[in-house]
Amino acid sequence: MANATKPTMPSSFKGINHLKLPCHSLKKTYDFYTTIFPFKPLPQYNHYTPEHKLFAMMFTYEPSKLIIEVRYSPTEATAQKGWDPITWGVGTRKDLEEWGEWLDASNVKRSPVLMGIKGWVMGCEDPDGRDREVVCGG
Questions:
Q1: Residue whose C-alpha is closest to residue 38's, from 55, 63, 17
Q2: What whole-number distance in Å separates Cα of residue 119 and Cα of residue 138?
Q3: Are residues 102 and 69 in the same domain?
Q4: pLDDT digits (tens, 9 = 90+) for 96-119
Q5: 3-class secondary structure, 8
Q6: Are residues 68 and 102 in the same domain?
């Protein structure tokens, strides 16, 4: 058996392309990301079945170019209830308090501001019952 030389790892890796989250309702999730958080829809990247039924929507947070895909998948959304797959960042505890006021005024369930491992944190709940942690640095 000949010794094969392992190829060099490709250098083209660029990190995260986009995040993908399951949801129960595309409409409620659309409203959440465009009215509670500062995401803009990317309708040109939405996904449709061969029968032209919408099953996934794309959003971006323009300053960072982060893209999120929300996919209609109730079973997976139910399985993730209570899970916190994303941690958003803010700068200071004062920023968290401002977000707390915003979330309260928007009727979004949230935690109080708590001391985390690296700084202050506050969790909030999306329409599918997943926790989204809004966090500030230490």
A1: 63
A2: 4
A3: no
A4: 999 999 999 999 999 999 998 888
A5: coil
A6: no
Q: What percent of the chain has pLDDT over 70?
A: 96
List the domain range (segments joined by +) for residue 75: 16-79
If DSSP states are collapsed to H, E and C, what string results for 73-134? CHHHHHHCCCCCCEEEEECCHHHHHHHHHHHHHCCCCECCCEECCCCEEEEEECCCCCEEEE
Query: pLDDT by residue (tens digit) across 28-59?
Result: 999 999 999 999 999 999 999 999 999 999 99
Q: What pTM was computed for the model?
A: 0.83
Regarding whether 137 and 87 lie in a shared domain, the answer is yes
Q: How many domains are there within the chain? A: 2
Structure tokens at 137: 């640095």
Residue 59 shares a structural domain with residue 98: no
The C-alpha atoms of residue 88 and residue 59 are separated, in whole angstroms, by 15
| pLDDT-derived band at 1, boundaries 50, 70, 90 | low
In a domain, 10, yes or no: no
In the block, residue with structure tokens 């659309």: 30
Question: Are 51 and 69 members of one domain?
Answer: yes
* DSSP helix, strand, coil percent of the chain (3-state; round to 5): 25, 30, 45
